[in-house]
Amino acid sequence: MSLKPGRPGHAHLAIGLLAGAALVFFALPLVGLLVRVAPAELGRQLAAPSVQAALRLSLVVSLYAAGLSLLLGLPLAYALARLPFPGRGLARALVTLPMVLPPVVGGTALLAAFGRRGLLGGLLEHGLGVILPYTTGAAVLAATFVAAPFLVITVEGALRGLDPRLEQAAATLGASRLRIVGTVVLPAIRPSLVAGLALCWARALGEFGATITFAGNLQGRTQTMPLAVYEALHDSPDGAVALSLILLAVSLTLLAALRGHFFKGAG
Asked: Which one of 54, 79, 154, 240 has the minimum C-beta count within 10 Å?
């Protein structure tokens, strides 16, 4: 008795129905934002000085966080992908941990490390006169802590998939390790690097839990757009929807600009 394979048409139909249900699931909340916002309310929110300050601070914090993530994350990704060292598995777990930690736990951990009574906070305050909690710098550190892993994991995956023969060929021609990284490795992983940096920036832009825990919610100083949305939910739900739509527009603009890096070869 032989088993007849199922008709491809039936399988495609089932997959299509499930895919359609998934698309509806993701699209419905976004449509809900669009239908709830009146153009006049959106314009009023955009004109509010507090909203402009929150948006400006969000952009500043997220850009600084992306830059710091690039500075620290790129060499870390290279080390995880290419340099054998004891405890590499543990190091990778530590890097990915902020991706699965509740953000408020991440903020509490940052307080335990950099707060005035933290592991380094006391040294920073008494040695350098630097107090981090509830400052813009704290918002940058919080955003970096939760966003940098997206860059590290993306770049590490690209490095692991890179053909080592390219580097070997450059080495046989007398290129130094630093020159190989600059002229061979980085150009080869550029799409992944850009995509990882974009994901990192977007995650930093939307950071909430670690920021409010470690940096607080001080208008003009640490109140980013997600925190402004949270505050508006209590006093003006329509205003919170309008602010959410502004963040949505920024995120969609980013995805549209980098579509070729995320979906290379897609139709």
From this structure: 79
Domains, the chain, ranges and CATH?
64-220 (1.10.3720.10)
Whether the model pTM is above 0.90: no
Rounded to whole angstroms, the Cα distance separating 239 from 245 reads 10
Write the DSSP assignment of the chain as a string of letters: -PPPPPPHHHHHHHHHHHHHHHHHHHHHHHHHHHHH--HHHHHHHHH-HHHHHHHHHHHHHHHHHHHHHHHHHHHHHHHHHH---TTHHHHHHHHHHHHHS-HHHHHHHHHHHHSTTSTTHHHIIIII----TTSHHHHHHHHHHHHHHHHHHHHHHHHHHS-HHHHHHHHHTT--HHHHIIIIIHHHTHHHHHHHHHHHHHHHHT--HHHHHHT---TTTT--HHHHHHHHHHH-HHHHHHHHHHHHHHHHHHHHHTHHHHSTT--
Is 55 in contact with 225 (CB distance < 8 Å)?
yes
Q: What is the mean pLDDT of residues 248-261?
A: 72
- pLDDT computed for residue 94 by the predictor: 94
Type of residue at 266: A
Residue-wise pLDDT for 3-47, tens only, equals 555 556 778 888 999 999 999 998 898 888 888 777 777 777 777
Predicted confidence (pLDDT) at residue 255 exceeds the cutoff of 80: no
Cα gap 61→224, rounded to integer Å: 8
Assigned token pair, 42: 């959106």
- The whole-number pLDDT of residue 266 equals 47
Q: Quick check: 125 pLDDT over 50? A: yes
